[in-house]
Amino acid sequence: MDIIKNHLPRGYEEAIAKKVGCSRVTVHNILNSKAPANSGFWGKVVKVAVEMAEENIKTTQRVAETAETLKNIIV
Fold it and tell me: How many other C-beta atoms lie within 10 A of the C-beta of residue 29?
């Protein structure tokens, strides 16, 4: 879970809560292993967190690629 959380953008708890339809505290508890695995929101929260982390990784990679391209143009 830490790997997923390390790749989530700022404000992820609120964003996930809105998408899933639960509270920010529920998201926090699930992602910090403080909620039971049988919580009705557990699967949805984890699914959205993984999707957000993957998108954030892709965005970071695109920014790095763009920066490298610009660096090559400027040099």
Answer: 18
With a cut of 90, say whether residue 11 has pLDDT above it: yes
Q: Which two tokens stand for residue 32?
A: 């910090």
**Six-digit token pair at 41?**
């929101």
Which residues have a Cβ under 8 Å from the Cβ of 5 and sit 6 or more positions away? 12, 31, 49, 53
Quick one: angle between helices 12-20 and 42-74, nearest 10? 130
- pTM of full prediction above 0.70: yes
The alpha carbon of residue 14 and the mean position of all alpha carbons in its chain are separated, in whole angstroms, by: 11
Which residues make Cβ contacts (< 8 Å) with residue 53, sequence separation at least 6?
4, 5, 7, 8
